[in-house]
Amino acid sequence: MKRIFALILALCMVVALAACGNTDTATKSEATAESDFAYIQGQGKLIVGITDFAPMDYKENGEWIGFDADLAKEFCKSIGVECQLVEIEWDSKELELQNKSIDCLWNGMTLTDGVKEAMATSKPYCNNAQIIVIKKDNAGKVDNPDELAKLSIAVESGSAGMEAAKENGYNFVEVTSQANAVMEVASGTSDACIIDSLMAAAMVGEGTSYPDLTITKSLTSEEYGVGFRKGSDMAEKLNEFLKKAYDDGTIMKIAEKYGTQAAIIAQ
Fold it and tell me: Which residues contact 16 (CB under 8 A, 6 or more apart)?
């Protein structure tokens, strides 16, 4: 009997020690998982989710450039990782983050309440607005409520422009990017589009690819930020970088290259 009791006691001790070991391992694993910064440094790259959105992110000679693209590259240099820019469907941005297909969203993203709830976000770094773009010959329709209500308006799916269309009760059609929304208007497939003011300034009007289009009504006033996975410590790392980059002139130098200097928010 004593021998059986001793065996049972020994077995219990082994189980207890194993449980303690598993707890220590789990604790270490959880601590590591909590640091997105450590994960990204371990991967050796920051995967940045973007769309074709001049002047923030767009391709030239096969390379992604733009105010956001260049700033993201500078940030990656500062933390010692590669910057990998990946084009995504904007409507799937939150799922892409959660699945770790990307590590952040750096694409002229408006800091809506929904975005701030779903992600860890940086401090705002640019001012923006949602505006209506239409052919010059039809610009008067935007000022007429009855005519405006009849317009078919293209918006990027999942964007702040789509939210503005919903809030104003406009008839809208969803497309995959703001660039496609502008093309809809140029081709006559849609009567107008709602896009970011920074993009409109770069793409619409005299001297641009769409000289017959014009900027009209402003619907919102908003700010841009960068989004990371919820609970990520990367947002604070980026805030530190933005402050330093603003103070040493890096942000303004990049902004002057892409004509966005008037939108920059002091850090």
Answer: none
